[in-house]
């Protein structure tokens, strides 16, 4: 979640908060390889030639990228059933690959029943502690995570972690599952837990893969997203730059991972008001994603929304609106309206309308975004607080002070609870709330909030200044 503050002709200047979502990258890049088909079962098939033929036809279609047609053949093989449990496991692995292929295309809803079926076959055909089952549990959890169904994802990740921790022949599988679970913690605003997990993954990946491996770059990038959420911007910048350098210099890096590194660095630049640099990095990321993933992919849509924030910060309002609308429609088509990314698009577009004094349109979108955030993320999530903050701004600009007061008060309580009282974002919201309190003639309360906020911001400025020198030296040392 990121806020960017604006100067407005209204008394309450610079209070609108634009949210963003960073991209997370997988540590185990091989896990995203959708072209790998397991070897044909070597077990004698006796009288099961029809089953074998259907499997082979599915393999040929899958290898040529005809996933829908491959699905028909594999499902036919499921109905026939393999002659042994081992044969069914071969089919389950293929179904898992097929689900991953759909997921890579951003077709999460299409992948979901296929992934569930692969797990069902595994559970029937093998033991509860089979590492292969854990890999498929992680994959289904990842689909739920991408669909914003966090409650469904968590028990799958926990189960997969338990299996892999006790019985995994490949440490990269365990690291990939830890990464996904840490991402879940991040998305649900459990930042301390996410930081601990991402930090552990980074240390383990450096030991296992080497300091310049693309998986290590992704691990740095993931940890950086938590640092940004925690207001530790200089530490995040160090990690993002190291991640980007690896992505740019290691020929094994996938283009989509380079886009992630560029995108998240662009988000940080937006955060620290380097809007031109932000726009440039996000434009590069979007170009890569449109080429590699296509314009209808939800990850591409997310970058559109984030780029729109940079455009709005630069005053390019028409460009921003076009990107917001495109990102919103693409997100709705890919994952549906009941998703945090859709709420993200709504609230940012509403913020743009509010800046243009299109208050009725803004308020309608903010209220819709608030409902979606509360339903998908919960009433006490920082993104929910952002929408409440923005609604309060609109109410203030319309001189509806009692309603604005309720919104600011609730927003501030959520942010203090989730981010802590010493977070810079909390301090900035306090300053804006103080403007409202002065308008309501509650000067003593306003003065108290201002003093508290300025102390936090001054402390952070000193910390950033001291860390920046150390970070540069560390960057030179590590690279």
Characterization of this structure:
With about 475 residues, the chain is mainly alpha-helical. The chain has 20 helices and no strands. The chain has helices at about 50-65, 65-80, 85-105, 110-125, 130-145, 150-165, 170-185, 190-210, 215-230, 235-250, 255-270, 275-290, 300-315, 315-335, 340-355, 360-375, 380-395, 400-420, 425-440, 445-479. The longest helix is centred in the C-terminal third of the chain and has 36 residues, at about 445-479. Mean pLDDT is about 85; it is low at about 1-15, about 30-40 and about 470-479.
**How many runs of DSSP E, i.e. beta strands?**
0
Rg from alpha-carbon coordinates: 24 Å
Question: What fraction of the residues are assigned to beta strands by DSSP?
Answer: under 5%
Low-confidence stretches: 1-15, 29-40, 468-479
Outline of the structure:
The chain has 20 helices and no strands.
Task: Give keywords.
479 residues; mainly alpha; 75% helix; disordered N terminus
Task: Furnish the topology, listing elements before pairings.
Blueprint: H1 49-63, H2 67-80, H3 85-104, H4 108-125, H5 131-146, H6 150-167, H7 171-187, H8 191-209, H9 214-229, H10 233-249, H11 255-271, H12 275-292, H13 298-313, H14 317-335, H15 340-355, H16 359-376, H17 382-397, H18 401-419, H19 424-439, H20 443-478
Helix pairs in contact: 1-2, 2-3, 3-4, 3-5, 4-5, 5-6, 5-7, 6-7, 7-8, 8-9, 9-10, 9-11, 10-11, 10-20, 11-12, 11-13, 12-13, 13-14, 13-15, 14-15, 15-16, 15-17, 16-17, 17-18, 18-19, 19-20
């Amino acid at each position: 979640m990121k806020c960017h503050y604006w100067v407005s002709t209204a008394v309450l200047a610079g209070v609108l908060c634009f949210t963003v979502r960073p991209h997370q990258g997988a540590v185990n890049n091989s896990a995203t390889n959708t072209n790998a088909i397991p070897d044909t079962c070597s077990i004698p098939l006796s009288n099961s030639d029809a089953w074998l033929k259907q499997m082979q036809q599915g393999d040929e279609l899958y290898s040529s990228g005809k996933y829908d047609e491959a699905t028909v053949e594999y499902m036919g093989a499921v109905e026939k059933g393999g002659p042994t449990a081992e044969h069914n496991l071969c089919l389950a692995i293929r179904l898992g690959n097929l689900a991953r292929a759909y997921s890579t295309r951003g077709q999460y809803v299409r992948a979901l029943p296929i992934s569930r079926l692969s797990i069902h076959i595994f559970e029937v055909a093998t033991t509860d502690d089979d590492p292969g089952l854990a890999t498929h549990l992680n994959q289904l959890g990842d689909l739920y995570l991408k669909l914003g169904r966090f409650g469904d994802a968590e028990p799958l990740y926990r189960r997969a972690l338990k299996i892999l921790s006790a019985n995994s022949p490949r440490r990269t599988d365990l690291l990939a599952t830890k990464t996904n679970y840490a991402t879940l913690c991040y998305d649900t605003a459990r930042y301390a837990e996410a930081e601990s997990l991402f930090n552990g993954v980074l240390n383990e990946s450096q030991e296992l893969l080497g300091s310049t491996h693309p998986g290590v770059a992704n691990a740095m990038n993931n940890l950086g997203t938590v640092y940004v959420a925690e207001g530790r911007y200089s530490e995040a910048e160090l990690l993002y730059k190291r991640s980007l350098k690896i992505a740019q210099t290691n020929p094994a890096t996938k283009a989509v991972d380079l886009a992630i590194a560029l995108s998240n660095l662009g988000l940080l630049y937006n955060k620290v008001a380097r809007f031109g640099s932000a726009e440039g990095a996000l434009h590069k990321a979007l170009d890569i994603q449109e080429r590699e993933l296509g314009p209808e992919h939800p990850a591409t849509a997310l970058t559109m929304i984030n780029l729109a924030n940079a455009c709005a910060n630069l005053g390019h309002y028409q460009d921003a609106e076009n990107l917001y609308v495109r990102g919103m429609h693409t997100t709705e088509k890919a994952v549906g309206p009941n998703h945090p990314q859709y709420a993200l698009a709504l609230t940012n577009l509403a913020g743009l309308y509010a800046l243009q004094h299109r208050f009725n349109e803004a308020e309608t979108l903010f209220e819709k975004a608030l409902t979606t955030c509360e339903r998908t993320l919960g009433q006490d999530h920082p993104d929910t607080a952002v929408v409440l903050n923005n609604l309060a701004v609109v109410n203030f600009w319309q001189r509806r002070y009692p309603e604005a007061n309720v919104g600011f008060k609730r927003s501030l309580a959520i942010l203090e609870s989730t981010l802590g009282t010493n977070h810079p974002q909390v301090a900035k919201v306090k300053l804006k709330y103080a403007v409202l309190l002065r308008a309501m003639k509650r000067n003593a309360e306003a003065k108290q909030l201002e003093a508290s906020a300025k102390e936090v911001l001054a402390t952070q400025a000193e910390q950033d200044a001291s860390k920046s020198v150390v970070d540069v030296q560390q960057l030179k040392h590590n690279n």
